[in-house]
TrEMBL record:
This is Formylglycine-generating enzyme. It comes from Parambassis ranga (Indian glassy fish). GO terms for molecular function: formylglycine-generating oxidase activity; identical protein binding; metal ion binding. Keywords: Calcium, Copper, Disulfide bond, Endoplasmic reticulum, Glycoprotein, Metal-binding, Oxidoreductase, Signal. One of its GO terms (biological process) is post-translational protein modification. Its EC number is 1.8.3.7. InterPro entries: CTDL_fold, Sulfatase_Mod_Factor_Kinase, SUMF_dom, SUMF_sf. One of its GO terms (cellular component) is endoplasmic reticulum lumen. Belongs to the sulfatase-modifying factor family. It catalyses: L-cysteinyl-[sulfatase] + 2 a thiol + O2 = an organic disulfide + 3-oxo-L-alanyl-[sulfatase] + hydrogen sulfide + H2O + H(+). Residues 85-362 form the Sulfatase-modifying factor enzyme-like domain. It is found in: Endoplasmic reticulum lumen. It comes from the Eukaryota.
């Protein structure tokens, strides 16, 4: 109950900014944001208020400790079928992070700033259902959505049977419904499964769950800077991982939303929901689905204030309430969620989970 209320307050705050250009949602803007730009697809305000203590601190499971112990219990037999993602070396270097021409100014996409990152390896794909299944089989890990008993699902992909059971919605974004029993194994609730989607990105995982998985795999989540450097694929100051045109030569380069959000998804790119990973071309670094398909968690706490001084391996603020996610999802359309750009960003509390939010891991070594 509280969590929907919190959502509503946030949303109203954002909308009021559109009218008076002043609100807690954003800072000085060069141009008025669209209501869509401010409120987005509603993806960024899904919170579990229950996890926020009265003093504002967050109660987070010690996932790292847990998964380290679990990892020690897991014996890696030689010749065992490889389930981990292939990784690619991202050679370190400097790049321009963020943009001075923000698509959504309140998100803190700017200012553009010079950042250097050291070399690292990155999963070429989002973590899939099959890969996450191997983690669960090895550790017995229980995800936060399973503990809480529900997760947020986009209404457009729910069955009538499930929709009819729901009496509570997010008032300001009625297309997001808290669905009892929605988990990574049951992405649209108990009457759905992942049997036909083993090669799709795993979704309904919290930041804490994502950290637990990467840690088990002897990897970690990327920082926002690493993620954005990787997204840009060596291109300078471009919108997308492949350049500035959304559909070069009429081709789709990412699983996004075509049609009218949220009522009509024409699926011109071939997919209404998630797609199998690597269904679209890789960027110049060999990375797939950096934008679109599933949003991807990063390790950084959220802030919209960035220094313009040159940074080396920035890791974000030391603390916060929300974590940064990058890349947008299959739900993103320019009219509502113009966040399928490398500079774009959004946030969720670390215990939030939803039907369009996943992750990939990085490592200093090729694992
Ligand atoms: C999984 O879902 C498919 C439909 O996508 C259905 O045909 C199948 O029976 C389901 N399997 C199980 C084990 O529930
Ligand atoms: Ca699509
Ligand atoms: Ca993605």
């Amino acid at each position: 109950m509280v969590r929907y209320f919190t959502f509503l307050l946030f949303f109203l705050g954002c909308v009021s900014k559109v009218l008076v250009v002043q609100s807690p949602c954003g800072t000085k803007e060069q141009e008025p944001a669209t209501p869509e730009g401010a409120a987005g697809c509603g993806c960024d305000r899904l919170k579990r208020a229950a996890a926020v203590e009265e003093d504002g601190t967050l109660s987070i499971d010690p996932a790292v400790k847990y998964s380290t112990e679990a990892n020690e219990r897991t014996s890696k037999t030689p010749g065992e079928e490889r389930t981990q993602s292939q990784m690619v070396l991202i050679s370190g270097g400097e790049f321009l992070m963020g943009t001075d021409n923000p698509g959504i100014p309140p998100d803190g996409e700017g200012p553009q700033r010079l950042v250097t990152v050291d070399s690292f390896y990155m999963d070429i794909q989002e973590v899939t259902n099959q890969q996450f299944q191997s983690f669960i089989s090895a550790t017995g890990y229980v995800t936060e959505a399973e503990k809480f008993g529900d997760s947020f699902v986009f209404e457009g992909i729910l069955s009538e049977a499930v929709k009819n059971q729901i009496d509570q919605a997010v008032a300001a974004a009625p297309w997001w419904l808290p669905v009892k029993g929605a988990t990574w194994k049951h992405p649209e609730g108990p009457d759905s499964n992942i049997t036909e989607r083993l090669d799709h990105p795993v979704v309904h995982l919290s930041w804490t769950d994502a950290v637990a998985y990467c840690s088990w795999a002897n990897k970690r989540l990327p920082t926002e800077a690493e993620w954005e450097y990787a997204c840009r694929g060596g291109l300078k100051d471009r919108l997308y991982p492949w350049g500035n045109k959304l559909n070069p030569k009429g081709q789709h380069y990412a699983n996004l939303w075509q049609g009218d959000f949220p009522t009509h998804n024409s699926a011109e790119d071939g997919f209404i929901k998630t797609s199998p990973v690597m269904s679209f071309p890789a960027n110049q670094f060999g990375l797939y689905d950096m934008v679109g398909n599933a949003w991807e968690w990063t390790s950084d706490w959220w802030t919209v204030h960035h220094t313009t001084e040159q940074q080396h391996n920035p890791v974000g603020p030391p603390s916060g309430t929300d974590k940064v996610k990058k890349g947008g999802s299959y739900m993103c359309h320019k009219s509502y969620c113009y966040r399928y750009r490398c500079a774009a960003r959004s946030q969720n509390t670390p215990d939030s989970s939803a039907s369009n939010l996943g992750f990939r891991c990085v490592s200093q070594m090729n694992r």
